[in-house]
């Protein structure tokens, strides 16, 4: 197991996160598709749900966040509403599950990461792909050294839902979604896959961006990425690729082997080596303890999110997560990455992720 994952308690838990042993009551804030998905996932594990409530209405009247019968708040709103809602939830002692990106801008993300530490509450951000069984299997195999040292990560995340000029969504509004769209919305998912599987964090990026229909946020991006330990990455992102509904591709090349995982064939993992024929590992043939635990829950269209939410609630009851739960620090790093993508394109130069900082006041009052 690689150093990054072996240092995290509970990476290989001993039993599946299924039904919490303690009764929980969750408030879901955000009445869109994400809010409904969270509510469905919560109901599937027996958590009582309040909502989903309108994010705009709740940020105007914070009383629902202060309900003493609620112990967890799920924030699934537009990005600009994450900071005030999460801040109040933490202030009144709630655990928090927040959709990604952590915030619409770097200042908001820095504040949330710091407030989470000061609160002492359990928090997580919805990086769902790491909770798919074959992703966990690949992380285990990389950690066991089956590919040798990994030197190249390559792939793409492609969608088509904002291809047309008539397509509209709050993410197109920089005041609500932030200065980055494609990198912040889907690029951070691809980045999280690489970081989780290899244990190496992003260090710098250089980008080329494309804009359609006079929009202010990027529709597609070509990225070269440097990770810790000399790992290089190359990724194409697009929300304007016709016929590509939600396709993720990740290939890793190591000195002893290579691997490819595709979201369109998410229950398969392709493994290649120079001295033998390629092999396909399927859901029923996983070897990783973490992957086996994740297969104990029913598969479905929203399997990653359901597994993440189940694991989060199980940790509240003292059961380790089968894979590391994403942290607000992860979310902060990913917001830094997304903003670095924008800065890089403007400068036409490499940008260090560590450069992306603001000065903040620490504790919420």
Care to describe what's here?
- It is a single chain.
- The chain has helices at residues 3-6, 33-44, 55-60, 82-91, 106-119, 133-143, 174-177, 182-198, 289-294, 303-316, 328-347, and strands at 25-29, 48-53, 72-75, 95-98, 123-125, 150-158, 202-210, 220-227, 232-238, 247-254, 258-262, 268-273, 276-282, 351-352.
- The protein is an alpha/beta fold and 365 residues long.
- It folds into two domains: 3-128, Rossmann fold (3-Layer(aba) Sandwich); 129-296, Dihydrodipicolinate Reductase, domain 2.
- Strands 13-12-11-10-6-9-8-7-14 form a nine-stranded mixed sheet.
- It starts with a helix and ends in a 13-residue tail after the last strand.
- Residues 1-17 and 360-365 have low confidence and may be disordered.
Please describe the structure with a list of short key phrases separated by commas or semicolons.
disordered C terminus, 2 domains, Dihydrodipicolinate Reductase, domain 2, single chain, 365 residues, five-stranded parallel β-sheet, disordered N terminus, Rossmann fold, 32% helix, nine-stranded mixed β-sheet, 11 helices, alpha/beta
């Amino acid at each position: 197991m690689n150093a990054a994952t072996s240092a995290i308690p509970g990476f290989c838990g001993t039993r599946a996160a299924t039904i919490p042993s303690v009764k929980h009551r969750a408030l879901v804030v955000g009445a869109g598709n994400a809010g409904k998905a969270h509510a469905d996932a919560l109901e599937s594990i027996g958590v009582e749900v309040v909502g989903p409530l309108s994010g705009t209405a709740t940020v105007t009247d914070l009383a629902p966040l202060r309900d003493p019968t609620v112990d967890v708040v799920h924030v699934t709103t537009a990005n600009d509403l994450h900071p005030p809602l999460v801040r109040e939830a933490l202030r009144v002692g709630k655990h928090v599950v927040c959709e990604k990106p952590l915030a619409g801008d770097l200042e908001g993300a820095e504040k949330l990461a710091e407030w989470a530490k000061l609160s002492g509450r359990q928090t997580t951000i919805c990086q769902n792909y790491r909770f798919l069984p074959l992703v966990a299997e690949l992380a285990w195999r990389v950690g066991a050294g089956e590919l040798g040292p990994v030197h190249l990560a390559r792939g793409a995340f492609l969608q088509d839902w904002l291809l047309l000029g008539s397509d509209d969504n709050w993410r197109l509004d920089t005041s609500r979604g932030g200065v980055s769209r494609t990198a912040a919305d889907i690029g951070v998912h691809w980045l999280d896959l690489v970081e989780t599987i290899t244990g190496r964090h992003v260090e710098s990026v250089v980008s080329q961006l494309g804009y359609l229909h006079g929009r202010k946020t990027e529709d597609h991006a070509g990225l070269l990425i440097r990770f810790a330990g000399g790992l290089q990455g190359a990724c194409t992102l697009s929300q304007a690729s016709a016929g590509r509904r939600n396709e993720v591709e990740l290939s890793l090349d190591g000195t002893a082997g290579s691997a490819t995982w595709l979201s369109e064939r998410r229950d398969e993992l392709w493994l290649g080596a120079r001295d033998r024929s390629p092999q396909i590992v399927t859901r029923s043939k996983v070897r990783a303890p973490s992957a086996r635990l994740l297969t104990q829950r029913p598969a479905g269209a929203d399997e990653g999110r359901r597994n993440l939410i189940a694991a989060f609630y199980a940790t509240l009851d003292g059961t380790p997560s089968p894979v590391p739960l994403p942290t607000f620090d992860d979310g902060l790093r990913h917001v830094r990455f997304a903003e670095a993508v924008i800065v890089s394109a403007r400068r036409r130069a490499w940008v260090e992720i560590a450069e992306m900082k603001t000065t903040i006041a620490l504790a919420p009052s």
